[in-house]
Write a structure and sequence with these properties.
single chain, 24 helices
Length: 645
């Protein structure tokens, strides 16, 4: 709900008033309901507060508890308030007046450095523990809020964003080549595997699932949360599993509806956002409130070139959901006249780093802008749904059955699948067989070709040994075999980097628009529940993502709920949108090509090939061509480096 900042002088020197003022003034570009600082000789805490929840209105932050000798500044929404009230024995008459920051402080007073283990929600906070002479803080398990820091032998400084840290005279803006190497070497939208580093050499960040403790002996980072599959849940039948899921998911949604303003949600034509909207609308209607929903669609003159089972314009499915759910204040948005090229400087300034999500940049920003104009305080989404509520790929599950020699269930499922999808059983068996017992390059012959399109120069790769580092985190850019999705799912929840970039974007857009992005499908309680379910709950009777389809009966229309043949695909209109400015795009790429210094970082031959492809002229269907994507990503890095220098 806030941007937080602070300085701790480890040598007990007085903090300069100018340093405090400069840091806080640097946050003035964001809207705020209140701005306060707390200062005690060698410790300063600040808060640029945005009031989002009812309890936060009028909240005093930073807050000093004179009885416990603790001071806190926090950027947090805590979702398991009722559970904490009980464990902390807070009187019922006081509960609705206790803001989340004080809950965190009381949790720390009771459990010390174990406190983050008891917190569910999106948070980053810092606590000055006067009795023990230390600063302690933490970031939530998936990094829903950012928290950057700098330290040397004399000073420790932190902030929600990086720019205020550079107002301090002892922090210099130096490029971190290790960060850039990871960014360039990874061909997917993942930025880096090291969640402690940033694009700047002197600035680090607290990784997701970590706490930090600082005293005169130094700085210590500790991981407090590791998500594992755990013990499998065994219930009697499908109905019990569905009811248990509905209970957990409803609580995940309900706890994210706490807001002192209106609530909105992204809405596509699929199951994840549809389920979020269905549950949220049902809860809000009991309070006579409506849910604002926002859907991105391509402009009218865009011609969909994707395969028939892919749908670029999901409006027919979205309309079904809107009509069926009811109580929605819905907005279709095509962002006519806006292109990824026109948004580059906005995102570089907002994120403070280069970025990769070019295809989706328009609607990610545009929906935040629209929601801000409608005076919303929370914007829901179903971003993590593919790995939680709508997990369950039929083909991979059938391959698993085949490998485990579960013939009876395998052939039963195959019969249902062939009927549902109207496909040949023989062809399905052949495909599943190749997945169960793959031969290199047999399944995806183009996989290796696309994976070789990394942007990093050979010199930078060798200097940083980046590929060796990526491999230790399960990323092998030279691999030509399909990953095992079951192992990848486990790895996804164990590794910390997968959602770091997404949540960084969410934090910084939320500060700009005073509007929190909240994802019920990323609730820690829900993740643990979904990981505890047996795989057969996710694929049944020839139907993938079976659990969410069954659990949303009477919540979503059958056209959406039981849709097996069509999948939405977003952002494929990005090249189409750039056509009016294609000449400017080419002109800037030529400028990049002429600047030989940039090829200290970028792979010259890969970028040359990409530029030559772009110069052939805009082809809408090349939106999925890796050369087009590399060209625009290279331009983004080039602009960042120019800003940096």
């Amino acid at each position: 709900m806030s941007a937080i900042a602070g300085i701790y002088q480890l040598n007990n020197e007085q903090i300069s008033d100018d340093h405090i003022a400069n840091m806080m003034n640097s946050l003035q570009r964001y809207p705020a309901n209140d701005v306060q600082v707390w200062h005690q000789q060698n410790t300063f805490l600040g808060c640029h507060a945005q009031w989002i929840t009812p309890e936060s209105v009028g909240e005093l932050l930073p807050y000093y508890d004179s009885e416990r000798k603790l001071s806190i500044t926090a950027d947090a929404i805590i979702d398991n308030r009722e559970e904490l009230f009980e464990k902390l024995q807070i009187d019922k008459s006081r509960q609705r007046f206790v803001p989340d920051s004080q809950l965190i402080l009381l949790a720390y007073f009771k459990w010390g450095e174990d406190a983050p283990k008891y917190l569910i929600g999106d948070f980053a906070f810092m606590i000055w523990d006067q009795r023990n002479g230390k600063l302690f803080g933490a970031r939530d398990f998936s990094g829903g809020r950012t928290l950057y820091y700098y330290h040397n032998q004399k000073q420790f400084a932190f902030c929600t964003i990086m720019e205020p840290l550079f107002t301090l005279p002892y922090i210099k803006k130096k490029l971190n080549e290790q960060w850039l190497a990871e960014f360039l070497a990874i061909s997917s939208v993942i930025e880096t595997v090291d969640t402690n580093i940033t694009a700047y050499q002197d600035i680090k960040q607290i990784p997701p699932s970590h706490s930090i403790s600082i005293n005169d002996k130094g700085v210590k980072l500790s991981r407090y949360c590791t998500i594992t599959s755990g013990k499998k849940l065994k219930l009697k039948d499908n109905r019990e599993y569905e009811e248990a899921f509905q209970q957990v998911f409803q609580e995940a949604v309900r706890s994210r509806l706490r807001c002192n303003r209106q609530v909105g949600s992204h809405l596509s034509g699929g199951l994840d956002s549809g389920a979020v909207v269905g549950f949220a609308s049902r809860i809000l209607q009991t309070k006579n409130d409506s849910l604002y929903t926002f859907s991105y669609i391509p402009p009218k003159d865009f011609i969909d070139f994707t395969p028939k089972y892919r749908v670029a314009n999901e409006s027919s499915f979205i309309n079904e959901t809107v009509q069926y759910v009811g109580g929605l204040n819905h907005h279709f948005m095509d962002f006519k006249g806006v292109s990824p090229l026109s948004e580059v400087d906005f995102f570089l300034n907002t994120l403070e780093t280069p970025y990769k999500f070019i295809e989706n940049s328009i609607w990610l920003k545009g929906i935040f802008e629209k929601a801000y104009k409608e005076d919303l305080g929370v914007l829901l989404n179903g971003g993590r749904g593919n790995l939680t509520i709508s997990w369950g790929s039929a083909m991979e599950y059938y391959a698993l059955l085949l490998k485990r020699i579960k013939w009876i269930r395998f052939f039963q499922e195959l019969d249902y699948y062939s009927q549902n999808m109207d496909v040949s059983k023989t062809k399905t068996i052949q495909y599943v067989g190749k997945m169960a017992f793959p031969i290199v390059n047999q399944i995806l012959p183009t996989f290796k070709k696309y994976q070789s399109k990394t942007m990093i120069s050979k010199e930078l790769a060798a200097k940083t040994e980046v590929y060796k580092k990526l491999k230790t985190h399960g990323i092998n850019e030279q691999s030509s075999t399909l990953p095992n999705i079951f192992k990848e799912r486990k790895r996804h929840f164990h590794e910390l980097f997968h959602w770091n970039a997404t949540n960084t974007l969410g934090t910084k857009l939320s500060l700009k628009y005073s509007l929190w992005k909240r994802d019920p499908t990323n609730d820690l309680r829900l993740i643990r529940f979904c990981l505890s379910l047996p795989e057969e709950q996710y694929v049944q009777n020839g139907m993938d993502r079976s659990l969410i389809r069954r659990a949303t009966k009477n919540l979503l229309p059958d056209k959406v709920r039981l849709n097996l043949k069509y999948r939405g695909v977003q952002g494929v209109d990005w090249v189409h949108r750039m056509i009016p400015n294609w000449d400017l795009f080419v002109e800037e790429l030529e400028e990049l090509r002429a600047d030989k210094e940039v090829f200290n970082y970028l792979n010259e031959s890969v970028v040359e090939t990409a530029i030559n492809k772009v110069k052939e002229g805009p082809e809408t269907e090349h939106a999925i061509n890796p050369d087009y994507r590399i060209a625009l990503r290279s331009l983004i890095v080039y602009r960042f480096l120019k800003k940096f220098n």
